[in-house]
Amino acid sequence: MAHYKGAASEGGRAQILMKKRQKEQEEIENRKRKIEEELRIGSIQNKFATHYDAVEQQLKSNTIGLVTLDEMKAKQEDVIKRREKQLAKKDAEARLIEKRKEDKKKKERMKIAHLSFDPNEDEEDEEDDTDEEEEEEEEEVSPPADKKRRRLGKNPDVDTSFLPDRDREEEENKLREQLREEWVQKQEKLKNEEIEVTYSYWDGSGHRRQVRMKKGNSIQQFLQKCLEGLRKEFNDLKTVTVDQLMYIKEDLIIPHHYTFYDFIVTKARGKSGPLFSFDVHDDVRLINDASIEKDESHAGKVCLRSWYERNKHIFPASRWEPYDPEKRWDSYTVSDKNAIKITVK
Prior knowledge:
The chain is an alpha/beta fold. It is built from eight helices and eight strands. It has helices at residues 8-47, 51-62, 69-110, 121-141, 166-191, 219-230, 260-266, 305-311; strands spanning 194-202, 206-214, 245-249, 252-254, 300-304, 321-322, 332-335, 341-344. It is flat, with a radius of gyration of 36 Å. The two termini are 61 Å apart.
């Protein structure tokens, strides 16, 4: 560090300015650190966005004003197909990157540590020198002839994977499309699988029934099938339409346009149990270990909207609330027969 030579007052002033400058630099470094931490937190939160949240957000942004149910279904199918294509493309790109890394590692293992030039080139140069000397001697006797220039070829040991290659890009695009089609076929197969859904028609007391549905069926289709069976037993349902029915699963009111597949794929959770399980067994939170989450869930309730409007201030309807895919239920809360609140994490 250079010392200031001059009056004592000037030297003191120089030291004060240097300290001030150091303090400003420290403040700038602290601000940079805070900004980097905020950006890191934001990127981590974005990584854990679920497939269905993105679909729901895109559907909301594309839907303006009142639309019919058929239009809503068409838009939803279009958004889901586009989202599936994006996911398949990302999956294919990740596999290709992994495959490239493995190929590169294999090449590095096989490659001997040497320069990218051919080691036999020096010997060839020496032979060329002797040939040139012989040719010079011959030139003294014979007329001059055209010398053939030796062409330098490509070294096969050099890694050229970073260079653009049309054939390789076409092969990668074919692989991406093939993986996307496989993924779509797998999802279609999953949607066509049948499940047994246990539900309870709720009019103040429960009437438990079972119905077989496909995973790709919507809640509206499920309610239509329930209504066809319940009309034979309940006279007050003979003039009721599907739009007048509600489906409540784990204390959440499920909109009609959702499908069983949506909850199964995203492993959605409700207030009092998982939304992706539709078969019903004994409540494991009241039997065995209440701290361990099981796949068993409560029977979903099917009820009239008019009944809900009349009784929404009374338990159990007072616990019900509309389903929000952006809301997270990290723990389940249920009450046993002795009114003891149990929390399952």
